[in-house]
Amino acid sequence: MPAFSMKPGTDPSLRAYYALADTSSNLTMLFANPEFLRSVGKFWKGRGVHAKRLSTGLFLVSLALGLCEEVTTYGFWPFSVGLDEQPVSHHYYDNILPYKWFHAMPEEFVQLWQLHKSGTLRMRVGCCPPQE
To answer: Where is the signal peptide (predicted)?
Structure first.
């Protein structure tokens, strides 16, 4: 969680941490180092993603690329209409398009698509095929 990169995120992140610590959960909460967040932001800015802040998705894909042998993305679609010509929400929790000045969804999509084409990650667009 980017608890210390933005002041509004610190209190909720710490509350979640303490709530988890008070239970007998096997889950562990990790906090991103703000310097790491800045470094990831600079990396993507140098590759054409010019936004006030990276989307959480692109940050987590960046993290996964450093930790995982294989990475598959789903849900990165910067357009308001999907391949099935149905409206697309850009958040899992609401039906609001991203603010143009905050995230650079089309630029993020292009970078992820280039990583897909180079074989660095797999990118799924549209519906996932049924599992066997």
So the answer is: none
Which H/E stretch holds residue 74?
A: strand 72-74
Instruction: List the end-to-end C-alpha distance of the chain, in Å, as a whole number.
Output: 33
| Contact present, 80 and 88 (Cβ < 8 Å) | yes
Return the pLDDT at 93: 55
CA distances (Å), 49 to each of 4, 9, 69, 85, 116, in order? 22, 23, 24, 26, 17
Which helix (H) or strand (E) segment holds residue 21: the answer is: helix 7-21
Which residues, at least 6 apart from 96, have a Cβ–Cβ distance to it below 8 Å?
89, 90
Token output for 39: 């470094």
Block means of pLDDT (10 residues each) for the chain, 132 residues, are 71 88 85 85 88 83 94 85 78 57 78 95 83 74
